[in-house]
C-alpha cells in the first residue's frame, strides 16, 4: 500500500484506539482486515476509497468465502469494513458509505469445547497438586486457572489485572473489558486460596518488575496471553481432560452457572456481554444436555 493509504490507516488506527476505545487485539484485527480489503481492490491512494462500491465489498467477502473462511471470520471482517467506512464517511474521506447496506453476516453459533463439572474440577485439582511443589510458576498457573474458571473473565482481562484489583475481603476482582468498560466479578474460596498462595509465596519469588501486575513470569514481567494459553494447555494435558484453550474456561464457567440455576442477566453481567443475545448461546448447551438426560431417564422419551 502506498504512503497515502498508510496515512489513512494510521488515522483510522488512532480513531479505533481513542474514539472507539478498541482493545489492541481489535485494532490489529481491524487493520489487518482493512489491509486485506485494500490489497484485494488494489487501492493505492486516498482518492480511490471514494470509488469503492457495495459490490466491491461483496466481491471481497465472496472471495474469502470461496477460499474457505469461516462464517465467524466473514462476520468479523464485514463488521471491520462497516466500521471503517462509517468512520471514513463521518470524517469526509469518502462522500458516501458503500457499506451502509451491507448485510450483517451471522457468525456460526457453535461454542468451543466445554468441560463438564467433573473434568473442570479434576483440572483444578491437578493444578493445586502441582502447586504443592512450591515452584512459583506452578503456584501462578493454579491461581490463573482458578480465577479464569471462577469468574469467566477473558484472557486479556486476566493479564491486565493488577494486585489492587483483587478484593480479598469481598472476594471480587475488578477487570477492564471491551470498550474499556469496568466490571466487578465475584469469585469463590478455592480461587481465594490459590491467589493467597501465589501472592504470599510465588509472586515475590519472581521479583516482579511491574509492581502492579497480579500475574508475572519467572523474570518478573507481566504475563501475556500466550503464557496463559501455554499454562492451561499444560494443565489439561496433565489432567488428561480435553485439550482446551483458556477461553474455553470462560465458556465452561458460563455453562456451569446456567446449569446451576443462575439467570441469564446475572451471567451476562459476570461475563461483560454487551448484548443478552451473546449470553443466550449458552442456553443451547444446557438445553442439549437436559434433552440427553431426559431421553436417558424418561420411560416415554
Q: What strand order characterises the main sheet?
A: 1-2-3
Oligomer: single chain
The counted number of beta strands is 3
SS content category? mainly alpha
Rg calculated over all Cα atoms = 22 Å
Q: Which outline best applies?
A: globular
Our count of helices gives 14
Q: What is the assigned CATH homologous superfamily of the largest domain?
A: Intergrase catalytic core
CATH architecture label of the largest domain: Orthogonal Bundle
Annotation keywords:
301 residues; mainly alpha; DNA polymerase, domain 1; three-stranded antiparallel β-sheet; 14 helices; 4% strand; globular; disordered N terminus
Summarize the structure.
This protein is mostly helical. The chain contains 14 helices and three strands.
Protein described:
- The chain has about 300 residues and is mainly alpha-helical.
- It folds into two domains: about 5-90, Orthogonal Bundle (DNA polymerase, domain 1), CATH 1.10.150; about 115-295, Intergrase catalytic core (hpI Integrase, Chain A, Orthogonal Bundle).
- The chain has 14 helices and three strands.
- A three-stranded antiparallel sheet has the order 1-2-3.
- A hairpin with a 5-residue loop joins strand 2 and strand 3 (about 180-185).
- Helix 4 (about 55-65) packs antiparallel against helix 5 (about 70-90), helix 6 (about 115-130) runs antiparallel to helix 7 (about 135-150) and helix 7 (about 135-150) packs antiparallel against helix 9 (about 190-205).
- The radius of gyration is 22 Å and the shape is globular.
